[in-house]
Amino acid sequence: MALLPEALLFLGGMLTLVSGSFTPRTRQWRMSLVAAAATVASLVASLVAWTGGTRAAFSDTFTVDTSTGAARVTVTVSLLLILLIASGEVRDHPRESETYSLLLFGGAGTLLLAGSTDLAVLVVAFLLSSIPLYGLVGIMARPGSPEAALKTYLFGALFGILLMLGAVLLYGLAGRAGYSSLAAELPDAPTAAVATGGVLVLMGLLFKAGAVPGHFWVPDATQGASVTAAAFLTTVPKIGALVAITRLVAVLPGELRWATVLGILAVASMTIGNLAALAQDDVRRLLGWSTVSQVGYLLAAAAVTRISDQGQPALLFFLAGYALTNLAAFAVAAAAPERRSLEGWAGFASARPGLSAALVVALLGLVGTPPTAVFIGKLTTMGATWDAGLAWLAVAIALNSVVSLFYYLRWIRAALRPAAQRGEEAGTGTGTDGTGGRGAPTAALVAAFATVVMGLTAGPLWLVLA
Amino acid sequence: MLSVLVFLPLAAAAVLLIPRISAGVARGVFVVVTAAELALACLVWARYDTPAAGALAAEEQARWIPGVGSSYHVGVDGLSLPLVLMTTLVFLACAVHALREQRRPRLQAALFLFLEAVCLGLFVSADLILFFVFFDLSIVGMYFSISGWGHRDAARSALKFFLYTFLGSLALLLGFVGLYVASDPHTFDMVELTAHPPLQGHGVAGGLVLAAVLLGLAVKTPTFPFHTWLPPAHSDAPAIGSAVLAGVMLKMGTYGFVRIAMPMLPDAWRAWAWVVIAVGIVSVLWGALVAFAQTDLKRMIAYTSVNHMGYVVLAVGAAGVLADGADQARQVAVTGAVTQMVSHGLLTAALFLLAGSMFERTETYDLDGYGGLAGTAPRYATLFTVAAFGSLGLPALSGFIAEFQIFAGSIATVPVTAVAVLGILITAALFLRALQRVFTGPSEGLSVGFTDVTPREWVPVALLLAVSVFIGVLPRTLLDVIEPGAAVLAHLVGR
């Protein structure tokens, strides 16, 4: 029963898929309720399991601890928000119920990735979380989506092979696949071989996280796929991948060396993501690159989980805060699907004042403006990296935050600009326009509000995570 | 008490976000709440007893993020209380001035009440994270004020302002994290960090952390060479935005010097005091000279702010130079610096509100376009003249008290700072020249048909100037509060 939350998500996905094929095309929205119910059940099971303390399951191949618990709660809450976003976008689409089930399958795979403490389970989890991703990117048959899906698939296949290669190498060196045996055996193994194996496994996980060097698919997929898929693939896989990275580097010998490697990758990720986002005009592509930079900050926290005892809670808090903030931004984009280029956002503030407030909160939150959750995440990450002796990483985070301000502000400016020839009708226009529906605006408001609440109540949350 | 002071305007701002509230009600709420804030601040002042060295009065503390050693901790002492009162005065003046605002008055009132909350919150914070939260939120609020209600090239100026000051705030945050990591046990509490400065004797680390903090504060203050965001931000901001930006928000930088940089990094501060003094002198002279070259009224006032803040930087730098028997002088320099913050807040806010009245009538700040304005608008001319004389440091106004003490204290410790007296001379020349250009002679150009100020415009300015005259004539009321705080600080820096 240690895997109950994952099992519930998986069963929910199956149920949605099967019963979806017996439901008339126009009644497919019912499947979103099934999916949401399964997610809520999984959330409840996660919370119950969290109170049970740390334990290992299935002969040490899966660990249930604070990291797993936090990942489960973050993933299920994110899935609920994504289902809300999806309810407007894919309503009455021929692939509606399939989308819901793919979301749940992907969530289950990610959770498996987060909890696995065995190389074999890690490989399986990688595949389980990747395959639904390819489907999600391509399922909506939009002009850009086949290309995006193919690109995602090819990169996924390549990095998956690297991961398997690395896993085989480490397995060969240690003689067993469990992480506890890796920790025991690897210090005596040849350093170069261990380094190669570790880097290869890391590559696969960095693909899942959407971090440099496995980031090439992220901007294309966010631009080409549906907003639902984009919101999912920039949020949920990162949670599993980053927790998996901390578990992996915790058993590799040479803690400071791995922290430095991850730190350098973190700086590369945030810098490349930020610089690329500067020039973007399509808001979804901009958000795609923004997530590449955000995962850089997260990687910085992941780098020091082993050295500083602040690293772990900082990462888990940051992950949850990032997920909410990022989903708020995507939900606003989903609520205004007709607005793609930055110029198209003119007049948004007067047409949808509530949503523009959510957008401002989300974007300033991504910058790291207090008192939102990402601010606390960034702050504690800077503290943890400095504490671990990597003060340069803290400096890099600060400098990159300044750079990121440029493009987030460009979007805010565009949204606040008055539309040509349109009167101010504040308070109206909150109804549906285009194909947005009610779900996405609700998700945006809830998520934006939650980021502020999470920042203000950081104290008690921190105690739970520490 | 202090929490009410901080959260009352925040609550009012939240209420004003309800779309159905009419413009008239919103303007009324703005005035009533800012007046209530002034009354509350006076009450805090009346109940204020000088706290023991290193402690705070009216202290409140609540758990916030114990895991990282940060709490909701507020309190006031002689360095912050005068700024709190000054802030509430400036905001009340702005509220009255904005009574005729036609562009989205409800949102503007909400935004400025939000700004009042974060400004007051910053001055009463006794926790670095709380301080930083308010520091950053003030930038966000001011950005929306300039971009939403500014004129001319407002969007661009607002962006420049945001980027510049945000860069500064992140440098500041780095410095805070450095202080936090170095402290044992790790804490962000200002009182703790002041009592046990963490980086004493760590020359290089202390210097780097101080450099980060100084960079952040120098951008905000602003000092030369980080002042280039200020003139465009001011000239394109709305009148009350400029008044708050120059009157209150610039003080956040200088307040950071006396609240954070000096007492928490005394070792490093003393080591780098010469750099601070040099930056102060250059700011004084550069600000004055560039102001002298301006023909745009708002840009001129903006550059005199660089000059006036330069005096403060100069004084706090001089307070870090230990010389034999100079303890008294260092104390006087700090007192002068804090007095200057209050004085500059009052006088500059008055000048910017007057500049706003000018723009409302003629849509230009060009000084050359006017002549003989005293004939057509005598009340306007009187107020402007008083504010200008206050700003150039005429006795009987607050500016004199401040600058006199700054120079008395600084020159006694570091004689070379006497160079900066030239700044006063240039400021005097530029204000007199501006007065002569705009107000004297026969009415011509834009002065023709210039209607005199209405009560809505002159009452807030007169209020600010009256307080400035009060400080100038009866300085003890203010100095009795500041001096004990300054004495403690001078001692802390000498550790």
Quaternary structure annotation:
heterodimer
Q: Helicity range of the residues of chain B?
A: over 70%
User: Tell me about the biggest sheet of chain A?
Assistant: 2 strands, antiparallel
**CA-to-CA gap between the ends of chain B?**
33 Å
How many strands of chain A? 2
Q: Could you report the average pLDDT of chain B, rounded to the nearest whole number?
A: 91
Query: Can you write the helix and strand succession of chain A as a string?
Result: HHEEHHHHHHHHHHHHHHHHHH
How many structural domains does the protein architecture of chain B include?
1
Summarize the entry for a quick read.
The complex is a heterodimer of chains A (466) and B (495). With 466 residues, chain A is mostly helical.
Keywords:
heterodimer; A: mainly alpha; two-stranded antiparallel ribbon; B: mainly alpha; globular
Walk me through what this model shows:
- The complex is a heterodimer of chains A (466) and B (495).
- Chain A is mainly alpha-helical and 466 residues long.
- Chain A has a domain at 256-466.
- Chain A contains 20 helices and two strands.
- The longest helix of chain A has 30 residues, at 145-174.
- Chain A is globular, with a radius of gyration of 21 Å.
- By secondary structure, chain B is mainly α.
- Chain B has 19 helices and two strands.
- Chain B has a two-stranded antiparallel sheet with strand order 1-2.
- In chain B, helix 3 (81-97) runs parallel beside helix 13 (327-362), helix 5 runs antiparallel to helix 10 and helix 6 packs across helix 9.
- The radius of gyration of chain B is 21 Å and the shape is globular.
- Chain A binds chain B through residues 310, 313, 353, 364, 367, 369-371, 375-376, 379-380, 382-383, 386-387, 391, 394-395, 398-399, 401-402, 405-406, 409, 413, 416-417, 426-427, 458-459, 462-463, 466, and chain B through 19-20, 63-68, 129, 132-133, 136-137, 140, 147-148, 155, 159, 162-163, 166-167, 170-171, 173-174, 177-178, 180-181, 186.
